[in-house]
Amino acid sequence: MDTELVLISLIASSLIFFLYFVFKRSKSLNLPPGPQKLPLIGNVHQIAGTLPHRAFRDLARKHGPIMHIQLGQISAVIISSPRLAQEVLKTNDIALADRPTTFGSELVLYGNTDIALAPYGEYWRQMKKIASLELLSAKKVRSFSRIREQELDGFIEFLRLSSGKPINIHKTITKLINNVVCMASFGKNCKQQHALLQFLDEFARINTGFYVADLFPDFKFLYVVSGLRSKLMKLHKTLDKIFDDIWEEHEGRKRDGGDEDEDLLDVLLRIKEEGGLEFPITNNNIKAIFVDIFAGGTDTSSITIGWAMTELIRHPNVMEKLHFEIREAFKGKGKIKESDLHGLTYLQAVIKETLRLHPPLPLLLPRVCREQCKIDGYDIPVKMKVFVNGWACSTDPEYWEDAESFKPERFENTSVDFMGTNYHFMPFGSGRRMCPGITFGMVSVELLLAQMLFYFDWKLPDGLSSTDIDMSETEGSLVAKKVPLHLIPTSYAPDS
Ligand code: HEM
Question: Which residue owns the Cα nearest ligand 1 atom 14?
Fold first, then answer.
């Protein structure tokens, strides 16, 4: 009883002290306006159980494109307009270049030594440079074209055998893309691939940053009582074992001379051995980088293809126009090669429109303020979290006509691209922390969609019409279609 009383008084006094501190600090700062906050939880009740990008957009309609919210102990600013996104991602890019850490990311990502969640600084700069110049450069991505084309041949064969039967689009594509990422990373389809996919699913579900324990980081016991700590420890152990097994398998193959091409693990090991880096890289750093490659490389692309197929089946006129473009372009050529994809302008427009309405990361990865700065005249103090709602920007009616409708034609004859300079369309983010995997991700999306539409016609299973398609989204930082799309492929003879 005594211990309980002591514990309760301890929590209550820490909270009072914390609230007093927050209140005092916010009085002296000109913070952005925002929805009314409840004691202790702040605005948690307004986003709990919702999809954060949608809840934030709805709140922004009432409170404006820059809003201050309090999520438990976390003080955050939500940006919902392209004009202010530019202030965050360009004007104040360096001041806001940190990432938040959670207990989960710290533990599972080997002390946040990956790229996506590494704090801004020399280590992050070094690793991002290695990613951009060595791992994900256009040349390196091209060197994996044989792997992609070989995996796709198998996939097309699978679709031919499934002709007339419904297939789960997301599941099938995720497996295919993960095969490609595995082979590019480790040279062969690794036995641990399934376990790795399961890990990623679980980690993305847990590490949203919106768990109660993450919202009250000073109260470490919440991690224990909520069971999150033990879940995360277990996840970390599983991941470490998966990587150790992969590593062993990889070493064995290299020893036996079974693999000659340089895969991504070879690249990192070569750089590690060459030395001369300001921050010598360790095996744990390499493991953390592979979490980014798998998390960034698999789901983002398969989610995009899933949404593109969903929109195509809902818009038969777009499907028909795309079929026509692809079938005309490759008529009589026998095979679609990656190098021939650039001429498919309507395909590019369909992919852009899909990413505009369904960016896999609708809230860009959050940033954290490292130097006090001002956005729209409001103070952004050090440690304040900044969320840019990329989806709200790419569906902003001030920038897009008929913003919520799927109309790929809007991207025909425009120079709007996703390279991070158009703040009303930034599915890969913008600024220093922008995605380094655009080429790797886009080539899979383009090649897969081109092949799926060249060789097959697609329809919904009997009894379903396009108006029956459930467009709900999954919860978590990556937003996929909640109810998996099932479609029936029918072989189309290209040269007929
Ligand atoms: C359709 C495919 C993809 C989409 C839509 C996508 C989207 C994004 C977005 C929105 C961000 C956050 C950018 C920001 O905060 O400004 C990001 C960061 C990142 N992405 Fe991607 N991504 C894709 C593919 C990939 C691939 C294939 C990889 C690696 C193999 C990758 C690795 C990363 C990494 C490492 C970061 C963190 C960069 C940093 O913090 O410096 N992504 N991505």
Answer: 429
DSSP annotation of 191: T
Dihedral over Cα of 174, 179, 185, 191: its sign: positive
Q: How remote is the CA of residue 365 from the centroid of ligand 1, in Å?
A: 9
Q: Which of 452, 465, 462 is nearest to 491 (CA)?
A: 452
Residue 446 Cβ contacting ligand 1 at under 6 Å: no
- Please indicate whether residue 427, judged by its CB atom, sits closer than 6 Å to ligand 1: yes
Beta-carbon contacts of residue 451 (< 8 Å; ≥ 6 apart):
152, 155, 156, 336
Residue 366 near ligand 1, beta carbon < 6 Å:
no
Cα-to-centroid distance, 296 and ligand 1 (Å)? 6
Closest approach atom of ligand 1 to CA 445: 1
Spacing, Cα 446 to ligand 1 middle (Å):
17
Q: How far is CA 326 from CA 242, 303, 340, in A?
A: 40, 22, 11
> Does any ligand 1 atom lie closer than 6 A to the CB of residue 356?
no
Mutate to test the pocket of ligand 1, among 173, 290, 428 (most ligand atoms within 8 A of CB): 428
Per DSSP, the three-state class of 143 is: helix
Q: Is 435 annotated as a binding residue?
A: yes
360 ligand 1 Cβ < 6 A: yes
Q: Which atom of ligand 1 is nearest to the CA of 441?
A: 27
Ligand 1: does its nearest atom lie under 6 Å from the Cβ of 362? no
Helix, coil or strand: residue 397: coil
Burial 287-307 (b: 16+ CB within 10 A, else e): bbbbbbbbbbbbbbbbbbbbb
Q: ipTM for the complex?
A: 0.98
383 contacts: CB under 8 Å, gap ≥ 6: 75, 368, 369
pLDDT values of the chain reduced to their tens digit, one per residue, 496 residues: 344 544 555 555 555 555 555 555 556 899 999 999 999 899 999 988 889 999 999 999 999 999 999 999 999 999 999 999 999 999 999 999 999 988 888 888 999 999 999 999 999 999 999 999 999 999 999 999 999 999 999 999 999 999 999 999 999 999 999 999 999 999 876 788 888 888 888 887 777 767 778 888 888 888 888 888 898 899 999 999 999 999 898 888 877 776 667 899 999 999 999 988 999 999 999 999 999 999 888 899 999 999 999 999 999 999 999 999 999 999 888 788 888 898 999 999 999 999 999 999 999 999 999 999 999 999 999 999 999 999 999 999 999 999 999 999 999 989 999 999 999 999 999 999 999 999 999 999 999 999 999 999 999 998 899 999 999 999 878 899 999 999 999 998 765 4
Decide: 304 and 445 in contact? Cβ < 8 Å. yes
What is d(CA 134, CA 265) in angstroms, rounded to the nearest whole number?
11
